[in-house]
Amino acid sequence: MTVPALIIGGGPAGSAAAITLAMAGMRPKLIERHKLPAGCVCGGFLGWDALRALEALGIDPWALGARPISRFRLVTAERVVEAELPALAAGLSRKMLDRALLDAARAAGADVTLGRAARAIDPLARSVRLDDGDTIAANAIFLATGKHEMRGLARRFAHSSAGLRASLPSSQRLDGLADVVELHLFDDGYAGLLMQEDGSANLCLSVSRDRLNEAGSIAALLPDLMRQAPALAARMEGTVPPRFDAVSGVPYGWRARNSGEGIFRIGDQAAVIASLAGDGIAIALASGASAARAMLA
Ligand SMILES: Cc1cc2nc3c(=O)[nH]c(=O)nc-3n(C[C@H](O)[C@H](O)[C@H](O)COP(=O)(O)OP(=O)(O)OC[C@H]3O[C@@H](n4cnc5c(N)ncnc54)[C@H](O)[C@@H]3O)c2cc1C
Asked: Which CATH architecture has domain 161-250?
């Protein structure tokens, strides 16, 4: 089978490309390995540039229950510093955001297939092998697998960090989090906390792989981090969330220098900004839409 445009990955980058192509009258094919977006390792902070990009794609985060954020708070063991953000931002779970984007892609006319994974890409033949053995060729391929490598076009990097994410259920320990993104700093990493649409808090940590490897496990690492971040320990009341999403190879600072003809790397497959900046989603949306416009030009 040959399709005009094949998008691998249904995160913000892949969906932005699909919506942009479909709104221009194409019928792009998007393949997402999860049957339903279930959330991923991400702080869920939507900056003002992400909010603008979502609006352009026809998504209203406030209608999805996004919580407004107008301040940030930096917390260390010794100090707390708080300041206004330059513009209004928002907190929204990735589960909610990714579902809304995929729904919008489908509504715009994209052919969205959930629950199938791409196994390998042949950039010269411009074809992709799927987990069921099928091969799809395309005039253009948009690689949007985010934090995950694709055989045939894997990113090469020497250093990377680990990312962890969990939800903290609504409780008094989350008091003072309304309207704020709170960042707790510790050696070789940080934890971000913000309220999301269902009243729970999203807890997302970035920590060097060396530190995680030395600890040996998430359960062994957390008490060590809590000693350096007592205010975070107080928020968690000494309990460790039962389930963490985890990703082991986040290559902050990595950038694609080139890609083959008809191959568009978008989102984290194009460049990885430090997650502390809270701008990865905005970049993913912008790069997906720009690559789609470049293909259409
Ligand atoms: C710890 C941490 C915290 C962060 N916090 C924030 C934040 O608060 N705000 C912010 O703006 N950015 C944040 N980021 C960055 C942000 O998560 C990414 O930049 C953004 O998700 C990139 O979007 P993407 O679409 O490129 O990839 P992803 O969001 O990773 O989406 C990729 C999609 O591709 C799918 N996929 C992967 N492999 C395959 C395959 N083989 N076949 C089919 N589908 C596949 C995945 O299931 C997924 O749905 C954070 C990053 C980290 C590591």
From this structure: 2-Layer Sandwich (3.30)
